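ingest -> validate -> predict -> emit
validate: passed (alphabet ok, no gaps, 171 aa)
predict: started
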Amino acid sequence: IRTQSANNQWNYSNLTDYYDADNFWDTLPIAISAHWGAEQVYNYFLQEHGRNSYDGEGSPIINIVNYGQNYPNAFWDGVKMTYGDGDGVDFFPLTSTEVVGHEIMHGVTENTASLIYSGESGGLNESYSDIYGVLLDYEINPLTANFRMGDDFMPNGLGFRNMANPNEFSN
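emit:
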């Protein structure tokens, strides 16, 4: 598992590895959140399903944080996860457990189901990632987890999707 910074750039040409001189890792919450979440998701898939990484073949799990400027999203691109820092108003950094699980699940789906990310198959891909994102949040954070996607990084604490009430946010 590797976590790097895009240094608020919109490309990957100047990635920076994280390091911490005193080994307390208290000044890098975005990187820590993404890396720790990826470790927990990896461990879950290995222990519960015997799956070594998103492809089942031990491929590296790569997190890129600090992507762009005021970017309120996260995505899987076929080989890595990329997380924006949010806009500081409606979204904070998108490295919550359910989002990390959601993005890695896109990799699992891509390597098992070969769903085209369009139309109904794209909808299935997205729903599998939502369901696993929430499931993983419950596995990793059983005392604080809920059925909402995004509640941890949205200032209103509500999130943008609710698995218990899919029509709540009309999206």
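The helical segments are 29-49, 97-112, 119-140.
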